[in-house]
Amino acid sequence: MPRFLWEGKDPIGSLKKGEYEAPNEAAVRVFLRGMRITPTKITLKPTSIFATKLLAPRQQKIKTKDVVVFTRQFSTMIDAGLPLVQGLDILASQQVNKSFKRVITDIKETVEGGSTLADALKKHPRVFDELYVNLVSAGEVGGILDTILHRLAIHMEKMEALKRKVKGAMLYPIIVVLVAVAVIAALLVFVIPTFEKMFADFGEQLPAFTQMVINFSKWARYWGWRVILPGVIALVIFFHRFYKTTKGRLIIDAFFLKLPLFGDLIRKIAIARFTRTLGTMISSGVPILDGLEIVGRTAGNRIIQNGIESTRKSISEGKTFAEPLAATGVFPPMVVQMIAVGESTGALDSMLAKIADFYEEEVDAAIEALTSLIEPILIVFLGGAIGVLLIAMYLPIFTMASAIK
User: Fold this and answer.
1) Is 165 exposed, middle or buried (0-12, 13-18, 19+ CB in 10 A)?
2) Residue range 282-292, pLDDT digits in tens
3) Which of 123, 249, 334, 335 has the greatest CB tally within 10 Å of its CB?
4) Do residues 302 and 390 both lie within one domain?
């Protein structure tokens, strides 16, 4: 457990100093309050790097599923009338994931120290994102924390399901391509040289097609480790670093949106995420400008993020939601019109939820169509590439058999 160095003043104003072993700063403040000392400075006592690594608890990954289960159970407890601290204590005691257990314990102790639940959650941004913290804050202010937590759990489940579908759709073609590359590389590096040696022993002139494949095999074996592999690694590193820059991300994200098949899918995924998240925030009482700011940062595409940010700026200047959204040229006319209707009827949150439902179904259909289209293309590519190499190797054998006859 870490040790904290503290300074403070007693009731008569005298300066006091000391150190105290506690799980976090909030616990130190509770201890000092019990001693009737007003803290002026609390710092973590420095330790050696070796001791820090040796004593540091083993980190276990906190999955979205863990947070969803925690949110649902916490919502049920609050709805049943349990105090926040008692509910957090129960959830921490039954948590199997040790890393998440430490996080919940820290939240409980921070709340015990007098902080709001939203402030306690804000200390763990890797587990609870801006959306989560802002919705909890709105729920605490409005006195509907149980309802907000229930909505959050549903929202997270839907977002996780969408992410899972996209990952599943992309995983199959990636695996097939990697297998194809591995098989072709194995043929070029190991199989074709064996045939080349056998043909050299015959002393016959090889067909032009076979000679071309053998020359390509020699080139791949010579330049593969010297140029091709280092070049691919350098290209990946360059792409990663270029994408991290503002200009690079803008160029690459714009290119992704213009891709023949994938561009439309990326746009639909972004719209589904945007409308689902914003609808959840508006229905939970978060102001639309704050909601747009958070949604813009989590858009996943710089072009769409810029469109959301320009819309937010226009709304802050007094314009409607639909008008600047249409001007961005990022969102389809149907989305803009439905938002305009929702805005005029005062049911923007439910309209955004309907748009999200529609586009999630569109994403499902697009993924299914894309998978059914890519699968035969990849199979033909893999079979064709291997077939060409095999034909090239067996062609001289057929030629020699004819000559013998």
Assistant:
1) middle
2) 888 888 888 88
3) 335
4) yes
Do 44 and 127 share a domain, yes or no?
no
| pLDDT, position 204 | 66
pLDDT of residue 51: 46
pLDDT at 273 > cutoff 60: yes
Check: CB of residue 260 under 8 Å from CB of residue 361: no
321 and 366 in a single domain? The answer is: yes
Final residue belonging to a domain, choices 117, 138, 156:
156
Flag whether pLDDT at 53 surpasses 50.
Answer: no
Q: How far is CA 231 from the centre of its chain?
A: 28
The pTM for the full model equals: 0.68
Q: What is the CA radius of gyration of the chain?
A: 30
| Count: domains in the chain | 3
Contact 280, 155 (CB under 8 A): yes
Whether residue 329 sits in one domain with residue 305: yes
More confident residue, 337 or 397: 337
Residue 84 C-alpha from the chain's centroid: 30
Domain that holds residue 26: 3-55
Domain's final residue, options 95, 126, 156: 156
Residues 276 and 371 in one domain: yes
- CA 120 to CA 390: how far, in whole Å? 64
Q: Is the pLDDT of residue 50 over 70?
A: no
57-94 burial, b at 16+ Cβ within 10 Å, e below that, comes to eeeeebeeebbbebbbbbbebbeeeeebeebbbbbbee
Residue 240: what are its φ and ψ, rounded to 5°? -65, -45
Position with higher pLDDT, 120 vs 18: 120
Please answer whether residues 331 and 307 qualify as being in contact, where contact means their C-beta atoms are separated by less than 8 angstroms.
Answer: yes
DSSP-based three-state secondary structure for 17: strand
- Contact 355/271 with Cβ under 8 angstroms? yes
21 three-class SS: strand
